[in-house]
Amino acid sequence: MSGLLKKLPIKLAKKSPTKVADNTRSPVAKPSTTLKPISNQFTKLLSVTKYLPASARSSILSKAFGKVVPYVGTTGVYYETVEPNQVVVSLNNSKTVQNHIGSIHAVAITLLAETATGFILGLNLPSDRVLLIKSYSVNFYRPINKGQVAAIASLSDEQRLDILNTPKGEMVIPCVIDDRDSDSERAPIVVEMTWAWIPKSELEARRQGKASKKSAEVDLDNDSGPKTE
């Protein structure tokens, strides 16, 4: 995300924001909070855009975060709410994300859940740490309707403090899937996303260790043949 704040493109604001469904009442109340946001590259971006109109802000965040995670940026994920205590992302039912019955594909919905939970963790993680998805489960209980789907990830103040004060840990990030065109009270999908975080220095050390080991193996292979004077 280095340099992203300097690259907030003016032309992003010229893009028409993705249409958000009219019935966007969240099935999950935003947790109350008394905590101030921590300072990292994600929260700095939020601070830069907080005075923009909601639609323009959401559009810019969608494009900017798409640059952070390039694959997510290709899928049309739209960031509706991005706060340290709740992240709401949605996906319109377009042809490119449909399954064989015309609703949003299961993999795309899983991506929504991973995006919401990953970004809410990122908003609460000190900049000297890195987040990694550890495991997830996705259980389908009824078909999704042919409309927009949203993923809502939330964190309490207690959970946020736990993330802040634990240099290396893991957590199941609560996430709800909202089938916005459905009147059913039954959740269509139940997801469980387990994220881990470790110090960046540890990740770098692991990578260097593997690189050193691989280099040593190559050297040994080169030395294994017969030598002549």
UniProtKB/TrEMBL annotation:
CDD domains referenced in this protein's UniProt entry, alphabetically: PaaI_thioesterase (cd03443)
Supply the Pfam families for this chain. DUF4442
Judging by the UniProt lineage, the source's domain of life is Bacteria
Q: Where is this region: Disordered?
A: 207-229
**UniProt protein name:** DUF4442 domain-containing protein
Q: Which organism is it from?
A: Psychrobacter aquaticus CMS 56
